[in-house]
């Protein structure tokens, strides 16, 4: 997602400090580590999660210096997961560029991902807040479990919608939740506000992932930086496929199950016809919008401010983006 410039503009100084902090923290005695880390961090990422940290801190009028390394460590954890994901998924393109594993191989990509994880935890120690450390220790565990759970469901057409929501809550929404909750903790928010900001991040992350699921079958390859149907090619049973199997004819369900088990794009045209005819894409869009609306409701605990408005706008943009 590319948030509107107005979202960045109101934290422009913080965002510039964040980018500088990221560059400073990428230094390594091993040239290849630094080269790969800089490549992936600078590969057109939108810095959504660290931007959320900055907006939440500002919404509480928190000007603590620690907000910058907190935002940076979120980006490092996210980038590490991307490096590992691309190896697991055998991806060769992300954001319209070669993946690190495609350029340098799987082993260096995994190890640089580990470097970014450990650098993130060094920043947590620098911040020196045990509650924040606890949030990210739990988050990285949950994210790892979500990745393994997704891996076990590849080419498995029997997964239910409820099971799928559990996967994306762990795999995607967890880091959004950690970002917003930890920013609230750093800002000295009360327990009710901390819980509400955690909920906001969770619902926002779910909305974002469901929109990704939708765009995989409705998006444009050039703007997305990946090919339409990539999830199907990898045998991933995302919500559009799950819904199509649940509401289509037995013949429809049989074909979608076959496509998931087989992987690849041989049956893409038939699958696209089914998910459109059954309304599975509209259903996925509706679910994404429901999550975005819940995210905005969670913001009611915040005092009114331009930063609160931008957090609400963030939720709207999550489900209106085309990439």
TrEMBL record:
The keyword Nucleus does not apply. The keyword Metal-binding applies. It comes from the Bacteria. GO terms for biological process: isoprenoid biosynthetic process. SUPFAM superfamilies: Terpenoid synthases (SSF48576). Gene3D superfamilies: Farnesyl Diphosphate Synthase (1.10.600.10). It is an enzyme of class 2 (transferase). Supplies octaprenyl diphosphate, the precursor for the side chain of the isoprenoid quinones ubiquinone and menaquinone. PANTHER family: ALL TRANS-POLYPRENYL-DIPHOSPHATE SYNTHASE PDSS1, GERANYLGERANYL PYROPHOSPHATE SYNTHASE. This is Octaprenyl diphosphate synthase. It comes from Oceanospirillum sediminis. The lineage of its organism: Bacteria, Pseudomonadati, Pseudomonadota, Gammaproteobacteria, Oceanospirillales.
